[in-house]
């Protein structure tokens, strides 16, 4: 009887799901309902659940993952038809069984509720929330829809969108379930998208979070703390792109900082032709009706609408036009106000949003999983939710500089991206010196002098000064101090050591001797100075006026230059940063980070949710950092040296520390983070906590690249970087709503078992254990910041999950070692492998059993199979060799 009751309730949940607007094609079948029912009944004691706890469940969404062949079923726990807020468990069905269960249900539910009946109406709950959040006066609040204790109201002049309201039970820190009204309000100024719980009895606002995440990067002080020469960045080839010209021949061009280039500091722009990916954006980036031909000639399309919003009113601002030829090739001069290069900036914003859509589509952020598309092209999920991306935003209430925002509502509603300008690089340690020749070629840091009148010493600005270096000689026993009249320095950049006399005297003497600029070198050994005291800001009384620029250099770099000058002619350029503000839309790391919030929020707990990453130690900021690191990863990545997260917008050099506590690095002397640091309240929340998680993922990335190599084909590659990208996204889908570090780790391990049978279990465990997230690590309470326990051990050898974790030998075949793409195809097919499988026979057979193609080939690298002459239909590709026999269903368009 109990089994039948649970099954009836799950079927009822399906009917409710249908009535909420989901098509029949998205519904789970009765087989999955029965599988879940049996699993929960058999394992309820394992999860400390009772029959009552699992007697009223509703299926929130069902998602099929192509890579793992898993059907993800997201189930919300309810009490007498009222859902428990965020009590959403993730059930993974594979091979007609529960493969993985990530539990978020509450035990003893019937003992925790406070009441069954609200005293406040849904409208009164909105009024209470608006009053508590100080959102102004409500006007014309009308009820638009009603659906069993769930309502939709008009915007009421307080929200940009309609206001959905429903009854839920909210679990307090004490474990009580309080009947509440759950609602969301997107404020008129666009700064907040509040998701709140209002006590249905008292009207108090008992819980709130913001779907718009503010990534305030302003705590990095916009200084680079690297004191050596900047890393030399080669202009590597862009990621390999695959496109089918019959689909994408729209002639589009975009002059952008093409991946893997991070920013203007990391390389020049590239004019890309038709970069849209066939699989993810089959009709290009300017479509939204699924018919060949662009609907939009501006930076607007199916995936994103990029525009400016300098007045900060969240209206529909200007978007640059590519004209009928879709040519978005705009000039870019950074030595001017950003408004004057808005076409180039918005084009880059449009590009990175689209490229993030296309890249992560390959790894499972597709339509049914809740990605961002106006038209889902019949592939499931809810459409009408392209990203609205505002560039050069001027919304002061949202923090109009040094910031970026991303708001993620549930599937079917438009996410919002807000990109701001950044402060012009401030005085301080900057890359002001470039050595143009010799063994020391590269960039070096220095400090401009004080510029306060009347005793101002001119520093170096955006106008470059280039000349050979010359050490000064004042004819005394310490001639390099330059305290007296100097021998001729005509046309030279003078190098003078600090000491004895005023800075202004030294620089004046150099100017009198004909120098065009001065570098003053600290005479102190930095080992004897406090931190960063090897730099000082020079000042001094100036009379007569000094007209040449000067900078102050640290001891180590300065003495290295002086030593080299004894045997070499050193040519140097002094140049300071532009005095203009920097544009965050040109920093690809920031744009990718923000978009990443949408990925992790839509995938965690299923696409119908948007608030599953709100617990005390949630890692949303970490996933976003990692997303940005992955799309800018290069084959030459030095994981020990590491990389700073975002360096351009804060005015740092390419080897700067970025905006996190430490660079992302596998070297503990560079990044010492272990899991235990999350207990430290001095570590910021959520950014600092997130960076601990991203540190672990960066370590795991190195391990995968070391094992499987690097593949520059970010779409169809089979290298370690491709494998880790797939693994992490599969893990996010498996984890429960409100995951902690341990649950996220376990989901990644489960994803490896699902896709490879557990081939990399040992490696994954070793990486996590190395950072303290080992076998005995404990996440403690999700409501606490201070009860995490780190552990550095791996599971015992007897653990059954480690049985297949050793590396496979070269002659063993794994499905993950081969990729067949594009599929569907309307031209030729490609087979890509990451190792040689020797001589194989490739055959293509139609559905009538007729062989239409056969060829012998050595299977290694990329092999092409011609299909352009075949009729539309379904075919079977068989690849058979000594160590393999693989079948692939191919759709020919």
Give an overview in words.
- With about 900 residues, this protein is α+β, with helices and mostly antiparallel strands.
- It folds into six domains: about 30-110, Nuclear Transport Factor 2, Chain: A; about 120-210, Roll (Nuclear Transport Factor 2, Chain: A); about 255-425 and about 580-615, Elastase, domain 1; about 430-575, Glucose Oxidase, domain 1 (3-Layer(bba) Sandwich); about 625-800, Neutral Protease Domain 2 (Neutral Protease, domain 2), CATH 1.10.390; about 820-890, Immunoglobulin-like, CATH 2.60.40.3080.
- Helices cover about 20% and strands about 20% of the residues.
- Strands 20-19-25-21-22-23-24 form a seven-stranded mixed sheet, sandwiched between helices. The protein has a six-stranded antiparallel sheet with strand order 5-6-7-8-9-10, covered by helices on one side. Strands 11, 14, 16, 17, 18 and 26 form a six-stranded mixed sheet that branches.
- Helix 10 (about 685-710) crosses helix 11 and helix 11 (about 720-735) packs across helix 12.
- The longest helix is centred in the last third of the chain and has 22 residues, at about 685-710.
- The radius of gyration is 30 Å and the shape is globular.
- Belongs to the peptidase M36 family.
- Its cofactor is Zn(2+).
- One of its GO terms (cellular component) is extracellular space.
- InterPro entries: FTP_domain (IPR011096), Fungal_virulence_M36 (IPR050371), PA_dom_sf (IPR046450), PA_domain (IPR003137), Peptidase_M36 (IPR001842), Peptidase_M4/M1_CTD_sf (IPR027268), Secre_tail (IPR026444).
């Amino acid at each position: 009887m109990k089994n039948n009751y649970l099954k009836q309730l799950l079927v009822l949940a399906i009917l409710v799901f249908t009535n909420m607007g989901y098509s029949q094609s998205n519904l789970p079948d009765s087989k999955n309902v029965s599988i879940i029912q049996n699993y929960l009944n058999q394992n309820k004691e394992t999860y400390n659940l009772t029959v009552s706890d699992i007697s009223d469940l509703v299926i929130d969404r069902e998602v099929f993952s192509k890579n793992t062949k898993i059907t993800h079923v997201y189930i919300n726990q309810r009490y007498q038809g009222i859902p428990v807020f965020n009590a959403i468990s993730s059930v993974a069905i594979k091979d007609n069984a529960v493969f993985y269960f990530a539990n978020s249900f509450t035990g003893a539910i019937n003992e925790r509720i406070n009441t069954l009946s609200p005293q406040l109406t849904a409208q009164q709950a909105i009024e209470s929330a608006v009053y508590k959040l100080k959102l102004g006066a409500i006007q014309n609040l009308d009820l638009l829809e009603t659906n069993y204790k769930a309502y939709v109201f008009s915007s009421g002049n307080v929200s940009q969108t309609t206001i959905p309201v429903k009854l839920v039970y909210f679990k307090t820190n004490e474990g009580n379930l309080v009947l509440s009204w759950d609602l969301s309000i997107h404020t008129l100024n666009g700064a907040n998208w509040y998701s709140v719980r209002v006590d249905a009895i008292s009207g108090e606002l008992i819980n709130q979070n913001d779907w718009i995440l503010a990534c305030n990067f302003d705590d990095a002080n916009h200084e680079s703390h690297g004191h050596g020469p900047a890393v030399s960045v080669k202009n590597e080839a862009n990621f390999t792109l695959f496109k089918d010209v019959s689909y994408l021949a729209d002639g589009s061009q975009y002059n952008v900082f093409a991946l893997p280039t991070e920013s203007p500091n990391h390389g020049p722009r590239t004019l890309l032709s038709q970069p849209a990916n066939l699989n993810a954006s089959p009709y290009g980036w300017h479509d939204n009706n699924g018919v060949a031909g662009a609907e939009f000639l501006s930076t607007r399309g199916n995936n994103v609408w990029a525009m400016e919003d300098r007045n900060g009113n969240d209206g529909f601002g200007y978007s640059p036009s590519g004209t009928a030829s879709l040519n978005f090739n705009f000039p870019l001069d950074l030595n001017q106000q950003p408004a004057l290069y808005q076409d180039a900036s918005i084009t880059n914003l449009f590009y990175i949003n689209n490229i993030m859509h296309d890249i992560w589509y390959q790894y499972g952020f597709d339509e049914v999983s809740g990605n961002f598309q106006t038209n889902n092209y019949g592939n499931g999920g809810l459409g009408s939710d392209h990203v609205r991306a505002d560039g050069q935003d001027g919304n002061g209430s949202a923090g109009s500089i040094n910031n970026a925002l991303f708001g993620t509502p549930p599937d079917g509603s438009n996410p919002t991206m807000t990109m701001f300008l950044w402060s012009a690089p401030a005085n301080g340690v900057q890359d002001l010196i470039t050595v143009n020749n010799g063994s020391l070629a590269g960039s070096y840091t220095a400090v401009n002098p004080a510029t306060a009148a009347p005793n101002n010493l001119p520093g170096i600005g955006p106008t470059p000064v280039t000349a050979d270096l010359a050490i000064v000689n004042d004819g005394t026993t310490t001639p390099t101090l330059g305290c007296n009249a100097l021998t001729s320095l005509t046309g030279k950049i003078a190098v003078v050591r600090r000491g004895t006399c005023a800075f202004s005297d030294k620089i004046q003497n150099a100017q009198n001797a004909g120098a065009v600029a001065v570098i003053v070198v600290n005479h102190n050994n930095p080992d004897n100075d406090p931190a960063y005291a090897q730099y000082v800001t020079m000042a001094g009384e100036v009379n007569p006026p000094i007209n040449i620029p000067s900078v102050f250099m640290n001891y180590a770099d300065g003495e290295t230059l002086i030593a080299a000058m004894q045997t070499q002619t050193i040519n140097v350029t002094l140049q300071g940063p532009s005095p203009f503000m920097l544009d965050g839309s040109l920093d690809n790391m920031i744009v990718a980070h923000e978009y990443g919030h949408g990925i992790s929020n839509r995938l965690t707990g299923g696409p119908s949710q948007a608030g599953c990453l709100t617990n005390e130690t949630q890692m949303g900021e970490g996933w976003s950092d990692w997303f940005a690191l992955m799309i800018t990863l290069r084959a030459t990545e030095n994981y020990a040296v590491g990389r700073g997260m975002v360096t351009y917008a804060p005015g740092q050099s390419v080897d700067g520390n970025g905006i996190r506590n430490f660079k992302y690095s596998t070297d503990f002397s560079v990044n010492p983070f272990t899991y235990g640091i999350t207990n430290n309240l001095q570590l910021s929340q959520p950014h600092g906590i997130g960076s601990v998680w991203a540190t672990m993922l960066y370590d795991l990335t190195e391990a995968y690249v070391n094992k499987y190599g690097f593949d520059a084909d970010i779409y169809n590659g089979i290298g370690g970087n491709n494998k880790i990208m797939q693994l992490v996204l599969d893990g996010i889908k498996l984890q429960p709503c409100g995951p902690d570090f341990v649950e996220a780790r376990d989901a990644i391990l489960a994803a490896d078992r699902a896709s490879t049978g557990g081939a990399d279990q040992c490696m994954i465990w070793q990486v996590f254990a190395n950072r303290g997230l080992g076998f005995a690590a404990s996440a403690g309470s999700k409501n606490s910041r201070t009860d995490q326990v780190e552990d550095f051990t791996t599971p015992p050898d007897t653990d059954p999950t480690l049985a297949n974790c050793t590396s496979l030998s070269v002659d063993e075949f794994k499905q993950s070692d081969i990729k067949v793409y594009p599929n569907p195809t309307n031209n030729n097919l490609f087979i890509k492998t990451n190792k040689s499988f020797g001589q194989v026979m490739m055959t293509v057979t139609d559905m009538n059993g007729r062989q239409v193609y056969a060829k012998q080939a050595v299977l290694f690298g990329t092999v092409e199979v011609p299909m352009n002459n075949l009729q539309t239909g379904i075919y079977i590709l068989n690849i058979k060799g000594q160590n393999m026999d693989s079948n692939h269903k191919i759709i020919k368009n």
